[in-house]
Amino acid sequence: MLRMLTGLAVMAVAVLPHAAFAVGTDDDEPPKPTETTTTCTDGKVWDEATKTCTDAKDARLNDDTRFRAARELAYAGQPDAALQVLAAMTEGETGRVLTYMGFAHRMAGRLEEGQAAYDRALVLDPGNILARSYMGQGFVVQGEIELANLQLAEIRQRGGAGSWAETALAHAIATGVTYNH
């Protein structure tokens, strides 16, 4: 089984190099840095309309803008800033918010908090394959390979074969290397 997963991971990285490094959304490309990560500090978000760094709670920002900023911040290695932006989202604890909360906590080394966020995301949507992939990667970090394999099987069972979520988790299981962006 491990040999098959290793082969899958190598093939996926060779064939899908961009997908192998994406944080994972419907977009398989990493987010491009914007002023949110190049100019703003302290969890502020670049507001295109005013051309200023804006508090994430500012009513002029919508949740999609906040989410893109949180994704960019997480990718840029600023998990606490990403959490600050996610907390400002008005949509509440939705699947996408909880998935990235889990990711940001995991990147900050708070594995238990990350797992709890993934659990809440999966209660809302058991088919959230990105949450399952990130959860499985957390299990790999903890040395819980059997639990990671269970998440990989769930991803495949729920139609995620060939997705970034499957590829990233299979790679992490095979190599021990998780995605830290």
Question: Could you explain how this protein is built, in words?
Answer:
The structure is a single chain. The longest helix has 14 residues, at 2-15. The protein has two domains: 1-27 and 93-181, Serine Threonine Protein Phosphatase 5, Tetratricopeptide repeat, CATH 1.25.40; 31-92, no CATH class. By secondary structure, it is mostly helical. The radius of gyration is 16 Å and the shape is elongated. The protein has a two-stranded antiparallel ribbon. The chain has ten helices and two strands. β1 and β2 form a beta hairpin. It has helices at 2-15, 17-21, 35-38, 63-75, 79-88, 95-107, 111-124, 129-141, 145-157, 164-175; strands at residues 45-47, 52-54. α4 packs parallel to α6 (95-107), α6 packs antiparallel against α7 (111-124) and α6 runs parallel beside α8.
Q: Could you say which overall geometry the principal axes of the C-alpha atoms support?
A: elongated
Number of separate helices:
10
The helix-strand sequence is HHHEEHHHHHHH
Structural Rg: 16 Å
Protein name: Tetratricopeptide repeat protein
TPR repeats: 95-128
Organism: Fertoeibacter niger
Keywords: Repeat, Signal, TPR repeat
Index terms:
181 residues, two-stranded antiparallel sheet, 61% helix, TPR_rpt
